[in-house]
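sorry for the late reply, my laptop died twice this morning and i had to redo everyting from scratch. anyway the thing you sent over, i finally got around to it. pasting the sequence first so we're on the same page, its 70 residues, then the predicted structure underneath. double check i copied it right bc i was rushing
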Amino acid sequence: LIPVESISSWFEHEGRAYNMALTRDISERHAAEQALRASEAAYRSLVENTPDHIVRWDRSLNRVLVNPGF
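ok and here's the structure:
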């Protein structure tokens, strides 16, 4: 199986109706999304299970992440 993305569009040209469909292979994007999910899961597990204090702030100095060790 190959993951694909399909887009179709109906239009008229010189009084005739057409339906155009474009399909593209998104295997690389699908693999990148899976790798990102795996990386995020590993990061989340590390942050949530370490006894060390981990805190992350945004640019306005609002806390956006605090782990249980904190």
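The first strand starts at residue 4 and ends at 13.
thats about all i looked at so far, will dig more tmrw
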